[in-house]
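WARN no homologs supplied; continuing
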Amino acid sequence: MHDLGAGRGPFWLDDWLRANATDVVAWRRHIHAHPELSRHEFATTELVMSLLRSVGLKPWVLPTGTGVVCDIGSGDRCVALRADMDALPLTEATGLPYASKTDGAAHMCGHDAHTAILLGAARALAGAPELPGRVRLIFQPAEEVMPGGALDMIAAGAMEGVERIYGLHCDPRLEVGKVGLREGALTSAADLIELRLTSPGGHTSRPHLTADLVHALGTVITSLPAVLSRRVDPRSGTVLVWGAVHAGQAANAVPQDGVLRGTLRTADHEVWTMLEPLVAASVESLLAPTGVGFSLDYRRGVPPVVSDPESHALMRAGVEAALGETAVAGTEQSSGGEDFGWYLEHVQGAFARLGVWSGEGPMADIHRPTFVLDERSLLCGVRTLVHTALATLA
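OK structure emitted
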């Protein structure tokens, strides 16, 4: 396994990776072949516990039964490193020899790599002659479901005493050896909206004698995004997109019920806090003239991931120390959601995108059955996390 950061030190990290690079790859492949869905990561949790205990560490499992927390080192100062462990409910189509052996579950988002990377960083740090403080390892369950397993971690006390937190996510749009960094918003808040409408129903020849439910649905579908675009700062990256609408069967019957579902996203934390009451008031005013009854289920998902300037600078220093100045790449702000944002509600931190594209052939995107990654990225990830923790504790 070619180590793109070999020789950059510290010596104990170089030595550990030279001796254990194949183990990091083997861990990732084992997890990849045995994926577990959100809050069912029992075997993955046991593997993590076993590998941490084998080097003298004392990890503990969340009360929910999945997810692991472990401290390395000593002292008052503590920096956290986070990886997520859950797979997606997809069927893999890569044809790899270590492809998923579990029907309907596959690591098509790179969480197998994230877990192996943090395991590598943990065992390397455990062998360091000394550390300038504590490093807290957070192996998180249930990132793929809203509002996310980060809340389980926080509720269990994983953020107590932590001054900063960092994380990585695989990015097939970046070549291996590159790490994408961005100060400020990296991902968006992502909320779910479900609107249920009711009407007495009736014949389409007499809409004036009932409440036209389908027309009311259409009004909300077209008008609510327009209303929000005039009530929210356009620089916030706020976007409402409908994903499902259901109502009626017969062409000549006004249906009695219907449902509309969509996602509302924003990169601005202040805007995120005001969206729920704004949506509720807007829906009520849009539907008032129609006579249609409604119930609105607004489910807050995850906050935006916003890397503060100091944490961003520390992570950049970590990447440069780990892989060189040319490894730092810019990266765009995404409308996707990531529950790492919950940690940033409690402490400052930064999140980065880890290049996993080999540089040859197509870029197989995440959340697709064909997603693959260049395993040299695993060692790049180990080095990045270790150096970021050291830079923060220095």
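Residues 11-33 form the longest helix (23 residues).
OK
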